[in-house]
Amino acid sequence: MTKEVHTIETAINIARQEYDQEWLFYLYSYLGEMYIRQFNTLNFIKYQTLANQCIKDVNFQDMSISTQIQVAKSFLYLNRYKVSYEKLNEIEKHLGKKNIFLSEIKRLQGIALYKMQHWDACIEKLKESVVEETSIEHKFTCFAILTYCYYRKKDLLNAEKYKYLAIENSINGGNVFAEIEFYTLCAEFAQLNRDAGEQIKCFNKLKEKYEMAFDCLNGESLDKAIQAYTNICEKQSIYRQIAIYKYILIGLLLVLCVSLVIYIQLRKKQVYKILALQQQINSLDNLRNVKNEVKEFILRDFEIAKKIAILRSTQQVQSARFLKDLEKYHIIDENYLLGTQWEQFYNHIDLSFDGFYSKLIQKYPMLNDKEVQLCCMLVSGFKTEEIAAIWMNSVFSVHKYKTNIRKKIGIPEGGDIILFLVEKLDL
Known about the structure:
This protein is about 80% helix and about 0% strand. The chain has two domains: about 220 residues, Alpha Horseshoe (Serine Threonine Protein Phosphatase 5, Tetratricopeptide repeat), CATH 1.25.40.10; about 150 residues, no CATH class. By secondary structure, it is mainly α.
């Protein structure tokens, strides 16, 4: 290979003197392909980049056919398969059926279609190419790809056929990359078919090919590859550390922001609860002095005095702790002394307001217990703050129940519930 490289480098110097950019592109591309066959990726990238720079200002239509084909191949190396396929189609349109480049174009079209996973079109192109193909190495490439395409189409008969044809055309010193990929594929399919013997054969072939690849690596290229790989790993490690620190910082900022928002919301709720508690205490204090018979009855029956005592005794305690203790010890739910005797209240409402309760639940059965209680307390003259105090809820909760009642019985928004009910219930 050293002599061949020297010859090509001499040709490159001549092309530079003549300023023949198209010929320089072709030589650099060919030199890059030689290095990739020797697994020297660094030199391959170097010469492929130089080749692309040579023709960046040259019109594709003005190039020779061989250079156009080489350009299409360079797109394949760059994983731009669709662009490569389009270029090859453009070249094919201007060639006759007996052109010497036609077989190579069809083979490259098949490879591009294979990379794009267009199995049927790939099979068609490669079959056309392999008929005219004379290179054993290229035949192996075609048969190997056909094997994979038929496996993907689940046509196992044709897959086996082309697998054996590929093996027959596999030669030492050929495209080791393609052979490694082919035998890796065969090993995978053997595993899927549970053919242990075939899988072992494929693994042995893979071992041979990897040994060949290792033998192709000379000390210089291996040292460069190791050094380049080490540099890449170090850079990636630094980038990962920077990314980790960045995500940690962002995470801390997010946690801080969320914590601040939660703290503000909790403080707001605490203030609202304390204000609601104060309103309940004031409202229940006012109820004690009301002279209306109905309210005096409710005052006695509901044992409001006990609730006032509980609220006052806990005024100095934080509202959050107060509510938590009420729930923890079931003071409201299980203590009979604090329970509201609604049945007696409803009887009194019926007696005092011309059967209001009975007519209400008969005409509007969709109202729940809380909504019925609210209507009865409203008709007996209770204010919103007083109702909230009896329920031991916030004023906002009472307004919410009022809104629900309006929606259920068809009262316009903001309408007077009692005036509406008095009219509908014929009171």
